[in-house]
Design goal:
alpha+beta, 5-stranded antiparallel sheet, 5 strands
């Protein structure tokens, strides 16, 4: 609620004392309270309840006659009591990377290289944000301004570039672009969750462990020198 009334570049600080909290909270319009939508605000206004302070001062029994089962929750929040957990590092729902070609790109090899570059970008960003993806979506925009989008769920939530790459390349192969005139290629990691919530199935093959160790080293190089200075050779597009 404080953020909603704060102009860009400024900050609103509310003290911890009950008086300071009430001083901020009570004058706010009823609709500013989480859980009070426009329809509920109109219902309250018909009874002269237009501010958060009005809600707090209204007996719970009266609110229950007006709002029904949601009255207790609204009443509690009007008194600055909210039992919802705070998740300060919640993962975004999705992240994406895209590339616009300088001209209509017909070369499947360039399509392949570009996609690998996008996969590396997504993997690095996911690991930087300590998130993992549960699905990958590939969108291809063509010269005639049409587009094709395909989504595939991953075998397990991951931020591991080879796993993302395998799924991304499967999507590319499924589209069968061949000599399509591609203008924009976009890749999106979706249904993100915090990395600590993911379970990784251990493999007997040690190549996966080596690939993950290499990935750590590449991430360190990117952090020091920037994205694009290190990665799989196949991801770098030909310029001649």
């Amino acid at each position: 609620m404080a953020a909603a009334v704060t102009r860009p570049g400024a900050a609103t600080i509310i003290g911890h004392s009950p008086y300071e909290i009430a001083t901020f909270l009570r004058p706010q319009p009823a609709a500013a309270l989480p859980g009070v939508g426009p329809a509920m605000a109109r219902s309250l206004a018909r009874y002269g309840i237009t501010t958060v302070g009005d809600i707090a001062d209204t007996p719970l029994a009266t609110l229950q006659r007006i709002l029904g089962t949601t009255a207790r929750q609204v009443h509690e929040r009007a008194h600055a009591h909210d039992d919802r957990p705070v998740v300060p590092t919640a993962a975004p729902k999705s992240i994406s990377a895209s590339h616009r070609f300088d001209r209509d790109e017909l070369d499947p090899d360039q399509h392949h290289r570009t996609l690998l570059g996008l996969i590396e970008q997504l993997g690095a960003q996911l690991r930087d944000e300590h998130s993992v993806a549960q699905a990958v979506t590939l969108t291809i925009a063509y010269a005639d301004r049409t587009s094709t989008t395909r989504t595939r769920t991953l075998a397990e939530p991951t931020a591991h570039t080879p796993d993302l790459g395998a799924t991304g390349l499967e999507l590319l192969a499924f589209l069968g672009l061949q000599r399509a005139r591609v203008r924009v290629m976009s890749l999106r990691a979706e249904r993100l969750i915090p990395a600590e919530q993911a379970v990784h199935q251990l493999a007997i093959d040690t190549r996966d462990d080596k690939a993950r160790d290499l990935e750590v080293a590449l991430d360190r190089a990117r952090a020091r020198y920037g994205l694009g200075v290190a990665g799989a050779a196949a991801a770098y597009r030909r310029t001649a």
